[in-house]
């Protein structure tokens, strides 16, 4: 059995070697000839799995992507070739929630605001959006929810329209890239909709870059629109619109989901799916492999407020680290992918246990994801 795996998939060799030979390649450069005699292909979002890539796939029976998004898989092509596929829904949702929380707490400190005083809208209330909602709610914010496809299917009440969501002080985008059907998201934020966003607003995109018309956003910023931008995802990755970067307050190279736990969970989920596909028992686990975090417990000696939450959040993950590396590396050829490949270890809030022997009021910190 030969299993071809993107080299940026942590713990892949440890897990997939249960089934056979594991071959590691750079996901961005996997070619059709690499798939000759390969039984299973395990990718990340940078590999376009389509007719062109699968042209020489004579034995391929399974494709796994260790990601939430599946816009890089041509599902029709996989079905036509009778190739099974799986993704890893929710694998890095906690990591994305941590990212948004870290970014908004940076901006809250810089712009002197309290999240509880802001109107916040989350657009796309699935796995990642819900993680953002629970963190912001823990920090006292009232969060508006916008998810027309869910409202249509689940008959939910209290959700707002896209137009209402775009009036919020803070707008967080968590939608997938959908190019067909009645809820398409490519350029969901058109030039016209972007223009209607408030001058004091904050716009965070950690979904997919194509959801915002990046050229229109640049034109708007060049005309002096003052909204604050947090962009983790960009149109045309790995070569984002360089002129846009100086207008972005927090800019990162598509790493919102890159906690070690999130990436490892992605690998483990497709490993388990492949074992099931083969009718075998998955006998390995990432919990046996993940390293102990550098700081794993802290004694709590005060009740929680936003300032205290910020200290703890940024102790575990301060997004400014990734923003600084992004600005330094993005001008270099291949810089975007290089930053992702050499991403510094980052742990989730849950890696830090808060010991509260004096029973201070810190329930909100546990709601943020810190461990008890
Ligand atoms: N930046 C990163 O590192 C990172 C990490 C994980 C996921 N993502 C991206 O985020 C996307 C969302 O992830 P998820 O786990 O929350 O997915 P999900 O499928 O759990 O949730 C997506 C939600 O968006 C909603 N939605 C779809 N179209 C919409 C529209 N037009 N308007 C409003 N809502 C809409 C869906 O109904 C669904 O509830 C993924 O598809 C992926 O592209 C990025
Ligand atoms: O869809 C996802 O899960 C995320 O966008 C994921 O973090 C992307 O990471 P990549 O596969 O590009 O390494």
From TrEMBL:
InterPro entries: D-isomer_2_OHA_DH_cat_dom, D-isomer_DH_NAD-bd, Erythronate-4-P_DHase, Erythronate-4-P_DHase_dimer, NAD(P)-bd_dom_sf, PdxB_dimer_sf. It holds the Pfam family 2-Hacid_dh_C. Gene3D superfamilies: 3.30.1370.170, NAD(P)-binding Rossmann-like Domain. It catalyses: 4-phospho-D-erythronate + NAD(+) = (R)-3-hydroxy-2-oxo-4-phosphooxybutanoate + NADH + H(+). One of its GO terms (cellular component) is cytosol. Substrate binds at residues 45, 67, 258. Residues 4-278 form the D-isomer specific 2-hydroxyacid dehydrogenase catalytic domain. NAD(+) binds at residues 147, 232, 257. GO terms for biological process: 'de novo' pyridoxal 5'-phosphate biosynthetic process; pyridoxine biosynthetic process. It is an enzyme of class 1 (oxidoreductase). Keywords: Cytoplasm, NAD, Oxidoreductase, Pyridoxine biosynthesis. It is found in: Cytoplasm. The active site is at residues 208, 237, 254. Residues 290-369 form the Erythronate-4-phosphate dehydrogenase dimerisation domain. Homodimer. Catalyzes the oxidation of erythronate-4-phosphate to 3-hydroxy-2-oxo-4-phosphonooxybutanoate. This is Erythronate-4-phosphate dehydrogenase. It comes from Moritella yayanosii. The gene is pdxB.
């Amino acid at each position: 059995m030969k299993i071809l795996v993107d080299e940026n998939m942590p713990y892949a060799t440890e897990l997939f070697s249960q089934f056979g030979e594991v071959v590691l390649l750079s996901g961005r450069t996997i070619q059709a000839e690499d798939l000759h005699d390969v039984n299973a292909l395990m990718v990340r979002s940078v590999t376009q799995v389509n007719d062109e890539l699968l042209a020489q796939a004579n034995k391929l029976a399974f494709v796994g992507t260790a990601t939430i998004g599946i816009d890089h898989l041509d599902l029709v092509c996989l079905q036509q070739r009778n190739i099974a596929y799986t993704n890893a829904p929710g694998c890095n949702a906690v990591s994305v929630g941590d990212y948004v929380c870290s970014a908004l707490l940076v901006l809250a400190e810089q712009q002197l605001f309290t999240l509880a005083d802001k109107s916040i809208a989350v657009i796309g209330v699935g796995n990642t959006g819900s993680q953002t909602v629970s963190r912001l709610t823990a920090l006292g914010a009232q969060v508006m929810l916008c998810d027309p496809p869910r409202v249509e299917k689940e008959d939910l009440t209290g959700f707002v329209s896209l137009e209402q969501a775009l009036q919020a002080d803070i707008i967080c985008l968590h939608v997938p890239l959908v190019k067909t059907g009645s809820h398409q998201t490519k350029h969901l934020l058109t030039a016209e909709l972007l223009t209607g966003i408030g001058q004091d607003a904050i716009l965070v995109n950690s979904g997919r870059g194509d959801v915002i018309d990046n050229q229109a956003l640049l034109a708007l910023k060049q005309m002096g629109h003052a909204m604050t931008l947090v962009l983790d995802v960009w149109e045309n990755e790995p070569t984002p619109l360089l002129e846009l970067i100086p207008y972005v307050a927090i800019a990162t190279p598509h790493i919102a989901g890159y906690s070690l736990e999130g990436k490892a969970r992605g690998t483990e989920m497709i490993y388990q799916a492949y074992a099931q596909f083969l009718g075998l028992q998955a006998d390995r686990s990432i919990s046996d492999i993940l390293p102990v975090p550098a700081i794993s417990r802290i004694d709590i000696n005060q009740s929680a407020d936003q300032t205290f939450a910020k200290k703890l959040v940024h102790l575990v993950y301060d997004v400014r680290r990734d923003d600084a590396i992004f600005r330094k590396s993005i001008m270099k050829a291949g810089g975007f992918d290089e930053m992702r490949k050499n991403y510094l270890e980052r742990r989730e809030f849950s890696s830090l246990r808060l010991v509260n022997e004096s029973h201070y009021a810190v329930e909100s910190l546990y709601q943020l994801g810190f461990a008890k």
